[in-house]
Design brief:
By secondary structure, the chain is an alpha/beta fold. The chain has helices at about 20-30, 40-50, 110-125, 125-135, 140-150, and strands at about 10-15, 60, 65-70, 75-85, 95-105.
């Protein structure tokens, strides 16, 4: 799973300014990267998940996730925003970076839970959050997230 995040999956200075814009951005990028064919289905899966409860975490991060048959292969996308995004979060702080999980429906109970758990644990580490927020090179950000996903 350590190669699931590559430089092409990382977007720095993303102009999305609202939750819907962020989720739409991720849905469109998923299609552009060839992981899905239906951006609207992915957007709706993101929206359905947000309706269950916010994916805004702490320290300026969100982990939106979409589990849908529209996704062909599990992937992780990362976006750092040009400006803070107002997003309900556990600490009421705006979101500076989102790490999106895109999971085929058939892998909802396995790949999804492993990735979500590893990313959540990574983001509990204040040093790792600071590293991610300080870095603006897509290749280095991809390496940092991949390292966090692959740690045991």
């Amino acid at each position: 799973m350590s190669d699931i995040v590559t430089e092409s999956h990382v977007f720095v200075d993303c102009k999305a300014a609202t939750i819907d814009e962020v989720l739409s951005f991720f849905a469109e990028k998923t299609v552009e990267l060839g992981f899905a064919d239906d951006a609207n289905a992915i957007f709706e899966a993101f929206k359905a998940r947000e309706a269950e409860g916010t994916t805004g975490m702490t320290g300026g991060f969100a982990i939106p996730h979409a589990k849908t048959a529209a996704v062909k292969d599990a992937t992780v996308l990362v976006a750092k925003f040009a400006a803070d995004v107002e997003w309900p979060s556990m600490d009421d702080a705006p979101i500076k970076c989102a790490i999106a999980l895109l999971i085929p429906a058939a892998e909802a109970g396995s790949t999804h839970l492993r990735l979500l758990s590893k990313i959540a644990v990574m983001l509990m580490d204040a040093h790792k959050r600071e590293e991610l927020l300080a870095e603006n090179d897509p290749a280095k950000l991809a390496a940092l997230v991949s390292e966090g996903i692959s740690e045991e």
